Amino acid sequence: MATTSDIHLGSVIRFNGELCVITEYQHRTPGNLRAFYQAKMKNVKTGKSAEYRFRSGEEVELVRMEYKELQFIYKEGEHLVCMDNETYEQVHIPEELFGENVRFLKEEMIVKVAFEGETPIIGDVPTFVELEVTYTEPGERGNTATNTLKAATLETGAEIQVPLFVNIGEIIKIDTRTSGYCGKVK
């Protein structure tokens, strides 16, 4: 068993039987009271956030995880079929682990998956992806002076907001954390 001093940002703990990721963590020593740790946690399965105060030295169960980089091959029902590039073993990962960013995944992309033993618990898509614009309204000459945005459909079916000068067939770079346009790819 680990204690509260072993926890840091990004740690995964088992709290009330559920896996939670620590998103904020502070050690506090108020005036004449005992010190405690204030933690904000995000439930891995439900995505709900919670706050809890841990006493100094309180025992917590840290979850040991192993991160693997897998290649996304195809979608099969509610699962994504990914391949381990070292062993060529195919693994079925639940789509819900990637959240709404699964819409930016296309075949042959490398994804990062955290495993607890043999069970996948967290899935991360690449931070930046390059995708082709399959549909958007045509850009007009002279529309580059303002920050006006328009809707664009990408090759994966995802829809994002892009500047007016982006046209069909262009490849653009997208930040998956914000679902925002980063620029054209040359």
Remind me, CATH topology of the largest domain? Answer: SH3 type barrels
User: Could you give the order of strands across the largest sheet?
Assistant: 1-6-2-3-4-5
What integer is the average pLDDT? 90
Percentage of β-strand residues: over 45%
Q: What is the CATH architecture term of the largest domain?
A: Roll
Helix content: under 10%
Shape field: flat
Largest sheet: 6 strands, antiparallel
Total DSSP helices: 0
What oligomeric state is this? single chain
Task: Supply the number of structural domains.
Answer: 3
| Termini separation | 52 Å
Stretches where pLDDT falls below 50 for ≥5 residues?
none
Per DSSP E runs of 2 or more residues, the count of β-strands stands at 16
CATH class of the largest domain: Mainly Beta
H/E element order: EEEEEEEEEEEEEEEE
Measured on Cα atoms, how large is the radius of gyration?
21 Å
The structure class reads mainly beta
